[in-house]
């Protein structure tokens, strides 16, 4: 029998945005910030951009109102232990896990999140499509300014529901390293922190991006960020049709996802999800 500090895990990724999945169906395990930091450390732990705790929604009093629709809740934590409202790549990996271990038997599944219930579909090509919900625009007259390379770049503030500051550049290389969070001004405009995306035009309905995720640093992909980027791109470039059959192709360092505005006005995100390993992690005593 595993000791209290030995936890079974599965590891997976969505376009190289990687996660450690921990099953806690009865909601008995408390993961501290330090536990998450240890697990996600790429030198002394397993290594990941975040942790996905799988718990039955009924076990979470704060979100029990979602239980009638979503049997399972995705408790997502960034690699520094902080909490995020949603994770577009993580939820696809979460669904792939539910299917792989037999917790679901249908192609359509609803998942509880801190951003609300998200409806997902496993497609025949093994991709997963997620209804990511509506876009909310930053409600302020101030324009976010991103500081990079001693310059200030105007940005668009978008919530998915995670906060994003999206800016358009000529080259993704010109922004330099994104390991340290680029300053976003004024500092009060995103009181809970913000993900920062840099976008380049690749052609009609096609963009590429890099991202610094709050609590994780630069990552190979960001699902909510891809949605924010596609929405902002559709308003920045005249040849972008986000409501087209495939939507907008968003290239990330770890692959490609597609973002489309669907009939209910929400954005959908389609991309791969892969499980790669399983084992036990030994938390420090």
UniProtKB/TrEMBL annotation:
**Enzyme Commission number(s):** 5.1.1.7
Keywords tagged on the record? Amino-acid biosynthesis, Isomerase, Lysine biosynthesis
Top-rank EC class of the record's enzyme: isomerase
Gene Ontology cellular component annotations, sorted alphabetically: cytosol
The signal peptide annotation in the UniProt record is none
Q: Name one GO molecular function term.
A: diaminopimelate epimerase activity
Q: Which reaction does it catalyse?
A: (2S,6S)-2,6-diaminopimelate = meso-2,6-diaminopimelate
Q: Kindly tell me the pathway this chain contributes to.
A: Amino-acid biosynthesis; L-lysine biosynthesis via DAP pathway; DL-2,6-diaminopimelate from LL-2,6-diaminopimelate: step 1/1
A Pfam family hit: DAP_epimerase
One GO-annotated biological process of the protein: lysine biosynthetic process via diaminopimelate
PROSITE patterns in UniProt:
DAP_EPIMERASE (PS01326)
InterPro entries referenced in this protein's UniProt entry, alphabetically = DAP_epimerase_AS, DAP_epimerase_DapF
Recorded hits in SUPFAM superfamilies, A to Z, give: Diaminopimelate epimerase-like (SSF54506)
**Which NCBIfam families does the record associate with it?**
DapF
Its family?
Answer: Belongs to the diaminopimelate epimerase family.
* This protein's name: diaminopimelate epimerase
Source organism of this protein record: freshwater metagenome
């Amino acid at each position: 029998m595993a000791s209290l500090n030995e936890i079974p895990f599965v590891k997976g990724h969505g376009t190289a945005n990687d996660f450690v999945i921990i099953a806690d169906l009865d909601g008995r395990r408390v993961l501290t910030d330090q536990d998450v930091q240890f697990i996600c450390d790429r030198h002394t732990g397993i290594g990941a951009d975040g942790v996905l705790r799988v718990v039955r929604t009924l076990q979470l009093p704060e979100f029990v109102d979602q239980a009638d629709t979503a049997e399972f809740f995705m408790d997502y934590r960034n690699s520094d232990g902080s909490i995020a409202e949603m994770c577009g790549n993580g939820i696809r990996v979460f669904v792939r896990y539910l299917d792989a271990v037999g917790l679901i038997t249908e192609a359509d599944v609803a998942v509880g999140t801190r951003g609300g219930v998200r409806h997902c579909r496993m497609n025949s090509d093994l991709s997963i499509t997620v209804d990511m919900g509506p876009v909310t625009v930053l409600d302020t007259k101030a324009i976010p300014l991103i500081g990079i390379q001693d310059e200030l770049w105007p940005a668009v503030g978008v919530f998915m529901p995670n906060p994003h500051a999206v800016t358009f550049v000529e080259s993704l290389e010109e922004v330099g390293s994104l390991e340290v969070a680029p300053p976003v001004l004024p500092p009060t405009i995103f009181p809970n922190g913000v993900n920062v995306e840099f976008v380049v035009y690749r052609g009609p309905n096609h963009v590429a991006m890099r991202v610094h995720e709050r609590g994780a640093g630069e990552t190979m992909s960001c699902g909510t960020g891809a949605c924010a980027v596609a929405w902002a791109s559709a308003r920045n470039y005249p040849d972008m049709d986000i409501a087209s059959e495939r939507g907008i192709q968003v290239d990330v360092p770890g692959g490609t996802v597609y973002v489309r505005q669907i009939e209910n006005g929400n954005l959908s995100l389609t991309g791969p999800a892969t499980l790669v390993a399983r084992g036990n992690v030994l938390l420090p005593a």
